[in-house]
């Protein structure tokens, strides 16, 4: 792969560098990622780190599904199903899996919390086979989604759509859920104002980011929803092409200070994610989730028939923003937290926040 990356020809100059990321990934950013891929990125080392987790595959509804299953040493550990989105993968949760298996003691009351963590690769991602037909939906993925009798959930991206399906429709088994995204269209500034909701400065920044995403930032969504073959074939055998397409998502939707503590979202993490897509030939199959599910966000807010506790963490630089008042309409909301550090990939951008909030969720599990 290094030869393919090294021999890829890029433009000699960026026509309009002053527009920054607005028109896509900047040439300087792409060049830096490409050079890192060739000169300093160690795939063997990253592969060894990923292989420290316990990997399995299972046949489910005719599909081969890959998953990580990391168990706590605590016999009372809570089952936790973590579901990724795009362009994430099981690797999206790499910084938080091992800490969540460790026992944490709540300072108030002394309750001990730890998790048995299950992280599947969605159909068509990495080592999971793609659906056999194009009629497969996110709801089809949800139907066999709970491997335990009772479980807690944590989700990002499209994984939140699947997870919300589980939360809403499997209320005897999905007994607690932590979201960073909900499958409801975020409100516009006019809708927020009509509800007499006043936003703090950093919350207003989040709303501005959503407005930009909904007008021009979601162009990738439209392309993948309508022309996945064109895009998939065009980039199939081009690691730098995939780097350009995916790199913009990773860079533009994360915290501007990504890679600075507490963030662990370095170029190495991004290159590991893109290497997984390229080496497993799954970039093409992964983007089909958009064509198969072109309208994943509901426009009508309504609570599901479940009393399971719901936890929500809003990260300032996520492309989607929901005020607490809107999240409360979609479940039994116990906790809403706003973080000024983090974006669309919070397990990389702000691991301590994700770990802390999931541990807090454990205090309410099995209620």
From TrEMBL:
Residues 2-93 form the Epoxide hydrolase N-terminal domain. GO terms for biological process: epoxide metabolic process. InterPro entries: AB_hydrolase_fold, Epoxide_hydro_N, Epoxide_hydrolase. It comes from the Eukaryota. GO terms for molecular function: epoxide hydrolase activity. It holds the Pfam family EHN. Keywords: Aromatic hydrocarbons catabolism, Hydrolase. Belongs to the peptidase S33 family. This is Alpha/Beta hydrolase protein.
């Amino acid at each position: 792969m290094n030869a393919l990356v090294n021999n890829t020809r890029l433009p000699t100059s960026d026509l309009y560098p002053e527009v920054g990321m607005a028109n896509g990934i900047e040439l300087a950013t792409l060049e830096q990622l490409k050079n890192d891929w060739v000169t300093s990125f160690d795939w063997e080392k990253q592969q060894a780190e990923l292989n420290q987790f316990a990997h399995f595959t299972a046949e489910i509804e005719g599909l081969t599904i890959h998953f990580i299953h990391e168990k706590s040493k605590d016999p009372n550990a809570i089952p936790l199903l973590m579901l990724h989105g795009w362009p994430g993968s099981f690797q999206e949760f790499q910084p938080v899996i091992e800490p969540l298996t460790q026992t944490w003691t709540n300072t108030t009351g002394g309750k001990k919390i730890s998790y048995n963590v299950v992280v599947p690769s969605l159909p068509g991602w990495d080592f999971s086979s793609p659906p056999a037909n194009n009629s497969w939906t996110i709801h089809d993925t949800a139907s066999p989604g709970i491997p335990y009798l009772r479980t807690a959930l944590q989700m990002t991206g499209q994984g939140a759509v699947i997870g919300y399906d589980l939360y809403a429709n499997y209320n005897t088994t999905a007994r607690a859920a932590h979201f960073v995204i909900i499958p409801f269209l975020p409100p516009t500034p006019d809708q927020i104002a009509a509800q007499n909701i006043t936003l703090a400065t950093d919350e207003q920044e989040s709303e501005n980011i959503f407005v930009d995403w909904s007008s021009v930032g979601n162009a990738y969504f439209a392309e993948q929803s309508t022309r996945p073959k064109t895009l998939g074939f065009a980039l199939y055998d081009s690691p730098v092409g995939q780097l350009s397409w995916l790199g913009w998502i990773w860079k533009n939707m994360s915290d501007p200070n990504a890679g600075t503590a507490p963030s662990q979202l370095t170029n190495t993490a991004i290159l590991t994610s893109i290497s997984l897509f390229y080496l497993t030939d799954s970039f093409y199959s992964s983007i089909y989730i958009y064509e198969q599910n072109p309208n994943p966000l509901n426009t009508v807010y309504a609570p599901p028939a479940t009393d399971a506790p719901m936890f929500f963490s809003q990260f300032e630089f996520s492309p989607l923003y929901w005020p607490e008042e809107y999240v409360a309409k979609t479940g039994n909301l116990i906790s809403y937290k706003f973080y000024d550090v983090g974006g669309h990939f919070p397990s990389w951008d702000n691991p301590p926040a994700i770990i802390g909030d999931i541990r807090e969720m454990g205090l309410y599990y099995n209620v």
